[in-house]
Amino acid sequence: MYKEVEGREAMGYLATKPTMIITSLHESGVLNAGVFGAYTNLSPRHVGAALSVASHTYANIIRSGEFVINVPGADIVKTIAVLARPIPPERSELDEAGLTSRPGVVVATPSIAECVAAVEFRFDREVPIGRHHFVIGEVAGGWIREDCLDADGKIDIFRARVIKDFKYPAPLYVTPGEVVEG
Fold first, then answer.
1. Domains of the chain by range and CATH?
2. What is the rounded distance in angstroms from the CA atom of residue 119 to the CA atom of residue 137?
3. H or E segment at 81?
4. Lower CB count within 10 Å: N or C terminus of the chain?
């Protein structure tokens, strides 16, 4: 069971700053997925992430005007390495990893069904910083597995078993109370 919401309530699903998978749509309709270890909550409605201007993720966000931050749990940590491989834009990283897409709640970009939560964003603006651009999105909605909610309507990091990059770029992640090798 999933709890779907529209608007800023979904920001509580990113309260712990876990490792994230950004999904975006290529102009051909192929679903793109990239793994990122850091983002910044800028306001109750805005998140920013530094993306390489050479990445498919960046190009898709700028063209489509939307993206989804997916929060993986430790149960799919082994498949995350597949998403980081250089996969051509005509092939979906989700297909390569054996993951399933889930339709957006508010945006057209799908999320990843195997993740514990997903927060949907509309592109707001970008700030150039060298070879990266700081891409800012405004929350549109999202979903969370109901068994991963805490009493305040935010993500429960223990039940969700969220992961955090521990040693980048090596696939080593930390969950609350354990280290998981990817």
1. 2-181 (2.30.110.10)
2. 10
3. helix 77-83
4. N
End-to-end CA distance of the chain: 27
Angle at CA of residue 166, ends 160 and 168, nearest 5°: 125
Residues 6+ apart with CB under 8 A from 141: 4, 5, 6, 7, 10, 104, 105, 106, 107, 119, 120
Count CB-CB contacts under 10 A for residue 15: 16
Distance CA 54, CA 75 (A): 30
Q: What DSSP state is assigned to residue 94?
A: H
The closest alpha carbon to 166, from 175, 153, 154, belongs to 175
Q: What is the C-alpha to C-alpha distance for residues 97 and 160, in angstroms, rounded to an integer?
A: 20
For the chain, what's the residue count? 182
pLDDT, tens digit, for every residue of 62-92? Answer: 999 999 999 999 888 888 888 888 888 889 9
Tell me, yes or no, if the pTM score tops 0.90.
no
